[in-house]
Amino acid sequence: MITLWNLVLAGIVFLISRKIFGRKKLGKTPPGPTPLPFVGNALSFGKALHLTINKWSEQYGKIYQMYMLDKRTVVLSDVELAKKAYQIPALQGRPRLEMMEYEGVRHGIMLTSGQEWQEQRRFTLRHLRDFGFGKNYMESLILDEVDELIEWLKSQEGKPVSINRKFYLAVINSLWTILSGKRYSHTDPKLGRVFELLIT
Known about the structure:
Layout: H1 4-21, H2 49-60, E1 63-68, E2 71-76, H3 79-86, H4 98-102, H5 114-130, H6 135-155, H7 164-180, H8 189-199
Antiparallel strand pairs: 1-2
Helix pairs in contact: 6-7, 7-8
C-alpha cells in the first residue's frame, strides 16, 4: 500500500537524482569543491565566507567554481584576472535574481543588464552631470563619508566591530546628499530612521 510518506520519499529521491544527473554538461569547467544537491557549498562557508574563499583559492587556483545554493558561481581570486574579465562585455552582466523576478520586479538599475543597463547608466550619468554632480563633487562627498568612517573606527580602539551598518549608512547618506543637498552625521537619528525604512 502506498502511503503519503512513500510518495514524499519518492519525490525527494526524484528531485535529488534529477539535480545530480540532470545537470547540463557545461564542457570544461574550473575546479572547485564538490557541491551538495540544493544547498551547493553553503554548508562549507562557515562564519567567515571570505576566509573560506581565500582557502579555496589556495587549494583550487586563481579561477575556481563554487555553488551558492544551486547557482554555479565562478570566482576570480586575482586582481589582474578580475580586471581583464571586467573588460569582456559577455562577463559584465548581472546574475538573475529569481526571487525579485517572481515578485514582478525586472527593471531598474539594480536588476537590468546588457543594453538596457547601458542605456540607464548613460541616462543617469548625463542627468547627474546636468545637475552639477561632476567628478570633484562626488569625490568630496565620498571623502566626507570615508572621514567619518575612519573617525568611528578610531573611536572603537581596536575592538572587534560589525561595519555593515556603517557602510550602509555611508551609502545612504551619499545618496541622500545627492538628492536633497543635505548631509547627516551617522549618529543623527533622522539618518538612522531612513536606514531602518530602507533596509528593514
